[in-house]
Amino acid sequence: MTVTIFLGALLGPMALGVPIAFALILSGVALMLYLGLFDAQIVAQNVLNGADSFPLMAVPFFLLAGEVMNTGGLSRRIVALALAMVGHIRGGLGFVAIFAACILSSLSGSAVADAAALGALLLPMMLKSGHDPARAGGLLASASIIGPIIPPSIGFILYGVVGGVSITKLFLAGIFPGLMIAAALCITWLIVARKEQSELPPRESGAVRLKAFVDSFWALMLPVIIIVGLKFGVFTPTEAGVVAAVYSLFVSMVIYRELPPAQLFHVFVAAAKITAVVMFLVACAAVSAWLITVADVPGALAALVEPLMDNQTALLVAIMVLIVVVGTAMDMTPTILIMTPVLMPVIKQAGIDPVYFGVLFIINNSIGLITPPVGTVLNVICGVSKLSMEDLMKGVVPFLIAELIVLFLLVLFPQLVTVPVSWFGR
């Protein structure tokens, strides 16, 4: 009955168009009334405590770094480097998109920011060279979701804060799975684009490639600084957000000089607006998280999946299928905030490593960004490409299948996550 009331109070208002943040508070209040615990002061206290977290300070800084990256020329130089390196091969612009997505993901940590950059910079090139619009848009959308997987990742930060898991370990654990998804997209693109008669850019000379590398050098140094700094304990993930923001501002204003001081205000405002949305969701989710614990919703869920508790693989498959379904109706941030406090006790009881589960969880939530009707990345690409959602979904399907295959390979073979993270963690 507790689970029914919680879900009804959450999904009912959402179906009526109530913003997710307010639906989260309503679901918490409904549980409080059912349990006879209603107190407005408890609601207010949990909202304030939900946003009062030092690790969450990384979120605004990484979001600011993403805005600066797109405005200050870092994204454009990364795409230019990828174009110079692999743009001339058959289907080269698709490989450029995947290569650029991997690098951009290590700069911003946001799939939406990467989708906006890739869509604006690469989609016109792909259409001009003769690629099918739906297929090109589908690839760009699918490549953008690497953003929350390869560190730094806002998704990992939220999961780590809510679940009490080491964010540094999550960052390091996401590197190899992110590269696996990139490899799967390359193979899929090679298959689906082999019959396209697209116009290829000319093969660039060694001098042009060297120039593209030199031009993008300062942008490429940012992920190196973050990964090395985290591995050797030079700074925490929160401090890494500050480093990313300050470094991207310095490079954009002093070295590349593409971000004039007059434009700084607009960049800060854009980052502040996105931060406000994320942080308000986090604060409101704290009410539901507290009530979920008090009402022992995880205990009820554990009772439902008790037959699977002795089989970690079967339990993970069941949870992944559930999250895929949830991801079609809910955006990534609220899914993390709602599902983490529910699933974490079950995961620990089953003896599953929370870091390993976190990688699977964030990959699954990232895939949800390209599944309709809510898919945020799909909406961004639709806006850039002027394609309808139906047409874009046709182009996304092959890449979506490839990413789901990678996800379930990681479920079946945990060592694909655990072994690489032990390398990076040394």
From TrEMBL:
InterPro entries: DctM (IPR010656), TRAP_DctM (IPR004681). Belongs to the TRAP transporter large permease family. The chain crosses the membrane at residues 47-66, 78-101, 107-127, 139-159, 171-192, 213-234, 240-256, 268-293, 313-343, 355-375, 395-417. The complex comprises the extracytoplasmic solute receptor protein and the two transmembrane proteins. Signal peptide: none annotated. NCBIfam families: dctM. It is found in: Cell inner membrane. The lineage of its organism: Bacteria, Pseudomonadati, Pseudomonadota, Alphaproteobacteria, Hyphomicrobiales. Part of the tripartite ATP-independent periplasmic (TRAP) transport system. It holds the Pfam family DctM. PANTHER family: 2,3-DIKETO-L-GULONATE TRAP TRANSPORTER LARGE PERMEASE PROTEIN YIAN (PTHR33362:SF4), SIALIC ACID TRAP TRANSPORTER PERMEASE PROTEIN SIAT-RELATED (PTHR33362). This is TRAP transporter large permease protein. Keywords: Cell inner membrane, Cell membrane, Membrane, Transmembrane, Transmembrane helix, Transport. Residues 8-416 form the TRAP C4-dicarboxylate transport system permease DctM subunit domain. It is a multi-pass membrane protein. It comes from the Bacteria.
